[in-house]
Fold this sequence. Notes:
12 strands, D-Maltodextrin-Binding Protein, domain 2, Arc Repressor Mutant, subunit A
Amino acid sequence: MTRAADQLGLTQPAMSNALKRLREVFNDPILIRTNQGMTTTEKALSLQPEVRKLVLEMQTLLEPNQEFQAQDSRRVFRIMCSDYAEATLLPAMIKRMREEAPGIILDCLTPSDVSYQDLEQGHVDMAINRFNELPASFHQKTIWRDSFSCLLNARNPMAKKFNLKTYLQAQHVWVSKTGMGVGLGVNPEHQSGLGWIDKALEKLGHKRQISIFTRHYTMPALLVMNNDLIATLPTKVAMMYTTNAELVLKTPPFSIPEFELKMAWSPLLHHSSAHRWLRGLIMGTAENLKNV
């Protein structure tokens, strides 16, 4: 209570009186004394995101003309991005950021580092991923759509006769990590839980033979140097390795639905001029890469 009073420029008795009024308004203790000190109640925790939103809106109202000066900023932006986004989007985005705002610092987090609560409370500025679902309160925007391609060694016998039959006879590299939170090991027997590629095969009544499971998109190109492995990857990732004469790209011998790469952010940050600049940087970079 004393530390909170200091932060707000109030005396400790004034802070206690404010807490008393809050307790009367919400008919809730708000803070309870425990062995660990003052602990927030469930009601207080539920109010927290709404209060943050109101404070941010008030700041925007009081400072309507204060625009973010990217070229002079030393701000740290925290972005959670999947390995896919990190491989395809971030290099070009960082190049542009270094040109426009060399003082800005970027902290890149993995999906395992971040929870939806971190994002909702504004502790993380942006999440860039392939989301199956998002909390309704989040803002989101599609960055681009991507298809799938098959990457394999040019000496792989399948390269000369690439069809569904040979695809199913081959050994495969599986790569994915799209969810948020700590990842768990996959079960090869549960095909429906392995993602878009295996769901598409399952609809045809087929199942591929997966030998390697990885969560990093830099790995498949190294792994398929073994001439008995095939990696089915997002096309933008697979295209990164077309300069390697030892590798070839093939169109999958069955239909796989495209997927969307999205960015998502907290409503607490939606009106921030700094955040608007970040969103513009991401979408501007994506627009330049869409046809690559």
